[in-house]
Design a protein that fits this description.
Distance between the termini: 42 Å
Structural class: mainly alpha
Largest sheet: none
Strand content: under 5%
Shape: elongated
Helix content: 55-70%
Number of helices: 5
Oligomer: single chain
Radius of gyration: 17 Å
Length: 81
């Protein structure tokens, strides 16, 4: 999940032709942090996702909607005998 988010973040940043340093400044984050997010090395807080979205001038949904959906496994129910 972290890798997919990072790749999408990088793609959106490239579309806007801004550097990691520029995004970091716009989002109020350190450039090293943004770089580690793009490499999939960070498990972000909701607050930092919100900050990155603001830095890119997009909604949080635009950053997270393309992520793979979670597949829920249903627990087997015990039957009474």
């Amino acid at each position: 999940m972290q890798q997919a988010f990072g790749e999408h973040l990088r793609s959106m940043r490239h579309e806007r032709l801004i550097t990691i340093e520029q995004l970091a400044e716009l989002a109020g984050l350190h450039p090293n942090y943004v770089g580690s997010v793009e490499r999939g090395e960070r498990n972000l807080s909701l607050f930092n996702i919100w900050r990155l979205a603001g830095g890119l001038d997009v909604t949080v949904g635009q950053l997270t909607d393309p992520l793979p959906k979670r597949v829920l496994k249903l627990a087997k129910r015990k039957t009474s005998s």
